[in-house]
Design a protein that fits this description.
Layout: E1 8-10, H1 12-22, E2 76-77, H2 79-82, E3 86-92, E4 120-126, E5 129-139, H3 150-189, E6 194-196, H4 197-205, H5 217-238, E7 263-268, H6 269-279, E8 293-297, E9 309-311, E10 314-316, E11 322-324, E12 328-330, E13 333-339, E14 343-354, E15 363-376, E16 382-386
Parallel strand pairs: 1-5, 2-14, 6-16, 7-8
Antiparallel strand pairs: 3-4, 5-15, 7-13, 9-12, 10-11, 13-16, 14-15
Length: 388
């Protein structure tokens, strides 16, 4: 969904690419986020049931290897909050209206309180969606020989449903992850709100630390104490009503503020671990960080390259028009801070339905269908923290 449109986009190929990167089955790759002690063996000398050819006839104890998975990167909003076509109306600041008439009255003149001063508004719209579709086949009789009882067969089918749900949760997480990656890429393309932590620290201290040497024992604790203080300062700046850290649309002076309760801060999880172990233990503060909603991120796009993204993001120009921007390959991403309205996603028309039993084949299919919507708003406050 590189450009806003009303089309419903089938993005299964993009989803597959994102999935293989996120799960470590492929290295990080350019991704168009703007578009969207017992060794196990697979064989045993025993008979197998005729459907899967992977389940043997009942022998010994059966373990169903499945557990529920809850998605991370929870930026999801309800349909009521998001809407099929969402619009945001912002109010631009205008100059004050000249000198006061209160203390300089003129004989024979009147003071006109009826001068019209229309509100200067900016309306932005978000629309478009992408499709998610998945299914699994349930057999009535064919695999009964692989189980000891109807209850065990029921447990197998329940495991199928849990697995289907887990896939859904992971896809949802990965698309939210990609939505955050698009925001990082778009902010970088706009050169807006980019904070180079090491550059600032080296300038302040006269040191010459790199993304590698900063983790040396003599450097680590002092640097991350400073990082904690720097992020607190940035958080406070985001709460001020200014034009900082947001893209401005030409002719519309939009000043925004993001209270701490509305700030979302995603930081590399390993950095949070270091802060907790090396910083908090030597201060009077027990909490990991003293500001807004802070969450750890294990990786931004690919688990093999946890601090990198390689995306072609949707961007917005000075006229407020959405387009596909230049490819953004960014390393040393430490974190992202943003207003809760700057990054959001929505799932709607989510439905699980079963087909009728096929009377000849004795099976039925369970289908999961849903639509995704993703939102980035660069006119809201957002900061990208780089370890360079």
């Amino acid at each position: 969904m590189a450009v806003n449109n009303m089309q419903i986009t089938d993005i299964y190929q993009l989803l597959n690419s994102i999935h293989t990167q996120a799960t470590g089955r492929s290295a990080i790759a350019p991704t168009n986020t703007g578009e969207f002690v017992s060794m196990a063996t697979t064989t045993l000398a025993a008979g197998t049931e005729p459907v899967y050819n992977a389940l043997m006839d009942t022998i010994g104890r059966t373990i169903f290897s499945v557990r529920p998975y809850d998605s991370k990167f929870d930026i999801t909003r309800s349909t009521e909050e998001f809407g099929a076509i969402r619009r945001k109306i912002s109010y631009a600041d205008k100059p004050l209206q000249g000198a006061s008439d209160t203390f300089a009255p003129v004989d024979g003149a009147t003071v006109d309180p009826w001068t019209i001063n229309k509100a200067d508004v900016l309306e932005m719209r978000y629309y478009g969606s992408a499709v998610y579709r998945d299914s699994t086949t349930i057999f009535e009789d064919q695999i009964k020989t692989a189980f000891e009882s109807p209850a065990q067969l029921g447990e197998f089918v329940s495991g199928q449903m849990t697995h289907m749900s887990n896939k859904w949760e992971q896809w949802r997480e990965e698309q939210n992850r990609a939505t955050v990656a698009n925001f990082i890429g778009a902010k970088n393309a706009a050169s807006n709100g980019i904070i180079h932590l090491l550059t600032e620290y080296n300038t302040l201290t006269g040191l010459s630390l790199t993304a590698q040497t900063v983790y040396q024992p003599d450097n680590l604790a002092d640097f991350f104490r400073w990082v904690r203080a720097r992020i607190n300062t940035l958080s406070r700046e985001m709460s001020e009503r200014t034009g900082l850290y947001q893209v401005q649309v030409a002719g519309k002076l939009i000043n925004r503020h993001t209270p701490a309760a509305d700030q979302r801060i995603y930081l590399r999880a390993d950095a949070l671990d270091i802060i907790d172990a090396m910083v908090n233990t030597t201060t009077y503060h027990d909490e990991p960080l003293s500001y807004a909603d802070v969450r750890g991120v294990t990786y931004w796009q690919s688990i093999q390259n946890p601090d990198q993204i390689d995306v072609t993001p949707s961007v917005i120009n000075a006229s407020g028009v959405v387009s596909t921007g230049a490819a953004q390959s960014i390393s040393n991403i430490f974190g992202v801070m943003f207003d809760k309205d700057a990054i959001a996603s929505n799932v709607y028309m989510y439905r699980i339905a079963n087909t009728h039993l096929n009377p000849k084949g004795l099976y039925y299919n369970t289908w999961l269908n849903a639509r995704f919507q993703y939102l980035n708003d660069l006119t809201e406050k957002g900061i990208i923290l780089l370890l360079d």
